[in-house]
User: Fold these one by one.
Assistant:
Number 1:
Amino acid sequence: EVQLVESGGGLVQPGGSLRLSCAASGLIFSDFGMSWVRQFPGKGLEWVANIKKDGSEKYYVGSVKGRFTISRDNAKNSLYLQMNNLRAEDTALYYCARGAKSFAYWGLGTLVTVSS
Amino acid sequence: QSVLTQPPSVSATPGQNVTISCSGRSSNIGNNYVSWYQQFPGTAPQLLIYENDKRPSVIPDRFSGSKSGTSATLGITGLQTGDEADYYCGTWDSSLSAGVFGGGTKLTVL
């Protein structure tokens, strides 16, 4: 059974940083591109970033370019999202998802709240 | 404002059939596969349709997907009260080099 478990969310002040992690199991992690998708409170989904299976290519939504960095460690079956210079509008539930363009499996999400 | 356009809500009665539209442009739906997701309150989204019209094995055949030009459609036949949820379309946008979603459609089964 595929499991994706996010961690690392929390309350952070504007301008602060957080590093999200996603631990994957039940799949050959290195066979799949991976993505982060966020959901704003009470609202819809927004794709954030993806990374190819070997980490060779990464893409980001415009609003996070230069502030967020996606990475992975295939030896540890883990996906990461380094978030710097956080803004109030980054407040959301962040999901880890299997796939680069279509998302067959999702974690339960980790909540990021940016507030002073 | 989402890149892909969905109706905010649709409603129907049990047993009826319903469709949810998703409109985009050539850079996204027109040249990329479309996926559809179902989300119940307080839970993570679930993949319903991928590559425009393919269903994961766990998804019943009451759910179907289609694409024509720059629009896609999710169809649900024989509506059940358990289908009441939010539905999102998603695809890749080749101009943006980014994933994009519709704003979501709330399905109410009256």
Note: The interface with chain A takes residues 2, 32-33, 35, 37, 44-47, 50-51, 56, 88, 90-92, 96-104 of chain B (CB under 8 Å).
Number 2:
Amino acid sequence: DAMVIQNPRYQVTQFGKPVTLSCSQTLNHNVMYWYQQKSSQAPKLLFHYYDKDFNNEADTPDNFQSRRPNTSFCFLDIRSPGLGDAAMYLCATSRDLLTPLHFGNGTRLTVT
Amino acid sequence: ELKVEQNPLFLSMQEGKNYTIYCNYSTTSDRLYWYRQDPGKSLESLFVLLSNGAVKQEGRLMASLDTKARLSTLHITAAVHDLSATYFCAVNYGGSQGNLIFGKGTKLSVKP
């Protein structure tokens, strides 16, 4: 029944080693979002796709990139993870820009 | 710049007691959300409040919105242990549901 699925649930990577997190959805929603949530902090929007249109938040570091090859999948690429990038990464979807978000279970990233 | 402030940030209460969490935001917005997050888990949508005076209730939780005061409240009635979690309010900006600014969250602990 899971509608927004994130893989893996836990990811460990080494400092500077590229890593990709994935998100898939069965809702056929137009919009997909990536949020970063550091420990005991509020989620922070990194970027979102409306269909194929990519929208980057102004303060999202260049180290973070995203791909959306089709409606169902969206990827978060961290090109050179630093220790400060350790966080929970949350994927969310919405039918359009005015409807509520559905969050996945998140991927917890550890950087060693 | 839109700011969202929650208080208290930590709340320890006994079962059976009532309490209110407050969420203030700094600029006009057309909707406000309340989310629940259990430790290590993703965000679960509780309420979406769309207009001044809106009130929504689900079980022991009731949320209200005063857009003139830029204030939302989440009232807990006769708390039970299962309500222990972190509660976030979030306000949208820029017309997109994904452009949510979250409060810092209120960590609620309900003790027997």
Note: The two ends of chain A are 34 Å apart (CA to CA).
Number 3:
Amino acid sequence: ETGVTQSPTHLIKTRGQQVTLRCSSQSGHNTVSWYQQALGQGPQFIFQYYREEENGRGNFPPRFSGLQFPNYSSELNVNALELDDSALYLCASSHRRETNYGYTFGSGTRLTVV
Amino acid sequence: QKEVEQDPGPLSVPEGAIVSLNCTYSNSAFQYFMWYRQYSRKGPELLMYTYSSGNKEDGRFTAQVDKSSKYISLFIRDSQPSDSATYLCAMSGPNQGGKLIFGQGTELSVKP
């Protein structure tokens, strides 16, 4: 199977709830990065996972956390959801960490917080 | 001030027009410069990347980087309706941990 797949494609949550988003990386890729894209904005880096450990983090609070599994798939968890967390969440995989351009993006999960 | 600035548009052009998309940036450490295309309800797709200054051409697309001015451009020749999408510039460099810094995106519409 090729490409990056994300699930679910859409979901609606209530403020204060918790959410888990999932990502399967492209075959042969061992690094996963997560981005948040608010409406009308460019993606913002949340964090990157390599060999099941966080490899770098953007300017996001600790309620944003993640996991990477031995098969390189990944989860993004967001606790205590806020209205401003409404966005498209993108997963990108690459064949090595700290690559500057070798990313493949998934189609994203559209999260709406009400 | 954002690290990367991009005119959000929207930009509307007739089919066959030459399109110019631009970004400016403030971090002189950036060395890799990329253009992504994002169709509605899809993730970004890498169009072109350039290392350091210079030009790069791929079919109807030309990317230019001027590091002295901290300015990058993407030119689309003979634009087609299928080029209608949001175009995102992105940048990276050493010690960025693989993090890409994106511009806001420019929404382009090519009218038949």
Note: Chain B touches chain A at residues 4, 6, 8, 31-32, 34, 36, 41-46, 49, 88, 90, 92-93, 96-105 (CB under 8 Å).
